[in-house]
TrEMBL record:
A GO cellular-component term linked to this record: plasma membrane
Listed transmembrane segments: 20-41
Keyword Transmembrane helix found: yes
Biological process (GO), any one: heme transport
Protein name: Heme exporter protein D
Pfam families: CcmD (PF04995)
Organism annotation: Acerihabitans arboris
Keywords: Cell inner membrane, Cell membrane, Cytochrome c-type biogenesis, Membrane, Transmembrane, Transmembrane helix, Transport
């Protein structure tokens, strides 16, 4: 088995297509990094919203157990959006 490139310089030159190859690699890596940052940011916002909602429920006198997950339309996935029932609706 022979190597595809004879030197590191040839590897980085990519047979004359270095600009296009490394630009594609950079765009891909930047896109993935952006997705990771956005996911972490959304997670932080979601958790902050949950904490705010729980704090409001405690202030309203429900003791923090204001909601409970119920079986959803997909066979018991209570963690799906919109599948929350009020404790006082039992």
């Amino acid at each position: 088995m022979s190597p595809a490139f004879v030197s590191w310089t040839a590897f980085f030159a990519m047979g004359g297509y270095a600009f296009y190859v490394w630009l594609a690699v950079a765009v891909t890596l930047l896109s993935l990094a952006g997705l990771i940052v956005h996911t972490l940011w959304q997670r932080r916002l979601l958790l902050a919203g949950i904490r705010r909602q729980q704090a409001r429920a405690r202030r309203m006198g429900r003791g923090g157990a204001a909601t409970r997950p119920v079986a959803g339309p997909n066979g018991g996935h209570g963690d799906m959006p919109g599948n929350i029932a009020r404790e006082d609706a039992k």
